[in-house]
Design a protein that fits this description.
Blueprint: H1 7-19, H2 25-36, E1 43-44, E2 46-50, E3 70-75, E4 80-86, E5 89-95, E6 100-106, E7 109-116, E8 121-124, E9 131-138, E10 141-144, E11 148-149
Parallel strand pairs: 1-10
Antiparallel strand pairs: 2-3, 3-4, 4-5, 5-8, 6-7, 6-9, 9-10, 9-11
Length: about 150
C-alpha cells in the first residue's frame, strides 16, 4: 500500500513537530496529576454547583457576584461537600454531618489537610492557584471531587 507522504515530507513534518514549543510546565503537571493521583477505591463526587459558572437551572441566590466568595457543591450517593473559597481560604461542610479528614490534592500530590468536626465543618488555607481536588476520608468511606481550578 502506498503512503500519501513521501519520505522527505515525513521528515519535514517530524522536524516541524520537534521544533514546536513545548507545553507549559503547569499544563504538563496538571495532566500528570489527573492520572497519577486517581484513586480507584474512592467514590467520585460530581460538581453540581459552581458560582463562577453559569447559574444552574432552578438554583437561586447562590451566586455571590463579582468579588464575592466562590461557592462549589459536590454530590454523590453517600456524601455531599459544599465549599466557599475566598481570599481568606476554604471553608467547607460535609453532608451528612460527620467527622472526617479532608485533604487538598494538587498537581504534586496531597498537600494541605484539615479535620472535619462532628458537624462536618472544616477550613483550609487558600492554596496557590491551579488545579486542585478534595480527598475526603470518613470512617470506611473514601470520596474525591473532580479537579477544579482555583
Amino acid at each position: 500500500m502506498n503512503s500519501p507522504w513521501t519520505d522527505d515530507e515525513l521528515l519535514q513534518e517530524l522536524a516541524a513537530v520537534l521544533a514546536e514549543e513545548q507545553a507549559d510546565e503547569h499544563v504538563i503537571q496538571a495532566a500528570e496529576a489527573a492520572f497519577s493521583w486517581r484513586t480507584v477505591d474512592a467514590d467520585l463526587l460530581s460538581l453540581v454547583l459552581d458560582s463562577d459558572a453559569e447559574p444552574a437551572v432552578g438554583v437561586r441566590g447562590r451566586h455571590s457576584g463579582p468579588g464575592g466568595p466562590r461557592v462549589l457543591m459536590f454530590r454523590g450517593e453517600q456524601l455531599a461537600v459544599e465549599v466557599e473559597i475566598d481570599d481568606a481560604g476554604i471553608v467547607g461542610q460535609l453532608t451528612p454531618p460527620q467527622p472526617g479528614h479532608v485533604t487538598l490534592v494538587g498537581p504534586n500530590g496531597p498537600g494541605l489537610a484539615a479535620q472535619a468536626d462532628e458537624v462536618g465543618c472544616f477550613t483550609l488555607p487558600l492554596p496557590a492557584s491551579g488545579p486542585v481536588r478534595l480527598d475526603c476520608r470518613l470512617g470506611d468511606g473514601h470520596f474525591v471531587t473532580p479537579w477544579i481550578t482555583i
